[in-house]
Amino acid sequence: xxxxxxACRQRKVKCDGTRPxxxxxxxxLSCTYLAVxxxxxxxxxxxxxxxxxxxxxxxxxxxxxxxxxxxLERAGAFARKPGLLSSETVVGCTEFxxxxxxxxxxxLNRQKFQQDVILMNDSIESYCLVxxxxxxxxxxxxxxxxxxxxxxxxxxxxxxxxGRTLLDEALAARRQLDILAEPMFETVxxxxxxxxxxxxxxxxxxxxxxxxxxxxxYSTRTVKSDDTSEEAMYLESLWQNLYWLLLVSERSHAxxxxxxxxxxxxxxxxxxxxxxxxxxxxxxxxxxxxRPFDETxxxxxxxxxxxxxxxxxxxxxxxxxxxxxxxxxxxSDDQTANLRVSQQWLRTMIWRLSTSLGFLSSSSINECMTxxxxxxxxxxLTLSTFKLPQQSMEVHxxxxxxxxxDVACTVTDVLSCIPSIEAKTSCFELGPEDYLNYxxxxxxxxxxxxxxxxxxxxxxxxxxxxxxxxxITRHLQIPSPGISQDGVLAMELRFGYDETMFGFHDTEMxxxxxxxxxxxxxxxxxxxxxxxxxxxxx
Length: 538
Known about the structure:
Blueprint: H1 6-11, H2 22-27, H3 49-62, H4 87-101, H5 110-119, H6 124-141, H7 155-174, H8 185-200, H9 204-219, H10 230-257, H11 281-290, H12 295-301, H13 310-323, H14 333-356, H15 373-385, H16 390-394, H17 398-415, H18 420-423, H19 432-445, H20 449-452, H21 454-464, H22 469-476, H23 491-494, H24 499-502, H25 506-514, H26 520-537
Helix pairs in contact: 4-6, 5-6, 6-7, 6-8, 8-9, 9-10, 11-13, 11-14, 13-14, 14-15, 14-17, 15-17, 15-19, 17-19, 17-21
């Protein structure tokens, strides 16, 4: 067999194999055959194709690839962490949920959940549900305390650390589920619990992903209308409750984070089953609060549309006020806290939208269209919650604290634009400064508020109402030197929270500082309109 010489191989020309070859003679090159030819193809055992195939098939038989119904490979083998989920934790979380949270989240049946607890050692679906459930209760409410304290001895750090560990376990277990199969009721609930856990940890982007996943899974389920058994009918009622809970959660999150919504109320939407034993008055009121915040409102809120008239926002304000009547007495303290804070927060959001659209005027016949209206909202929020136990507010997680923060930011902006005499306390009733002090106390006391929202609110007040910093810090019994004269927080206050715990960074802090702030041009527009109205009246 002819070999190419070294020169022809490097020149990549065809060699005739003679010594010297024709090309080397013509080019006056030295014709050598020193290069050792490389062997091609498989070497050793792999040179035999049949042997290679047998080895591959033997390996696949020992470690079979798991595929879901869609044909996609599942994650690798899942090993549960021993001792992570104690029976005491499961019992404590179960008791707390069905005692304190079930009236607001009527999506679980206690007897059916107990069956999942029994089956969780043998069923990955049940295990994933129970672990995500316990992570949700611990992260959001702190109602079940961890036995070990955190690195600095704080109970909050211990709860967050334990809840995060459970969340990681739930995420690992969830990878074993076939997420593209026909949605099961428990699968959608797991996605909802994962949403709540991530939001509770300050991981808003990840939380939005799981909320969207839950709404998508719900929308793609197949309704079995031919099954009229009692068990099927009861499960369908839980599906209805889950739909309204997802709708409320999606609209609340969309308003807070300027997101679009997917769940719509149409003529085919099944109404809330008010005869169900799982549904109480508090949940019906909550649904009525968020029902009118549809895609039309969200288009205005997200600045996708600007076609709006003041009467539509006035009507929306009236619907929010009527959703939870003042005479409602069939509510527990936990329900009252969630409903009243949400109600006043939604009123504040409507006022903010009215502000951005330029609808405010001091001469408006509708009080909700006046510049000072947030002061009335602050009064209503103070009077409706100041007697409530602290735990009744903490049970609803960091989301409730965030709503109080939003209201406090709006009140601060309004106070910075009115004469200081109007903000003072009178001899007979509380004044706006008292409301702001009360909101500071709430944020300071509520779980996670001191570390996440207090430094931000202090900075806003220092920038807009610097004269109130000393009274507020004295009221909270915290040192005031943490804020410099130029309005910048000291580093120990500015980063007084654990970024690794809450996933909260400086860019997001700037977003929080800007949320709800009334821009200068809008303030000028309102003042000019009022001046024109005064001139016209004279």
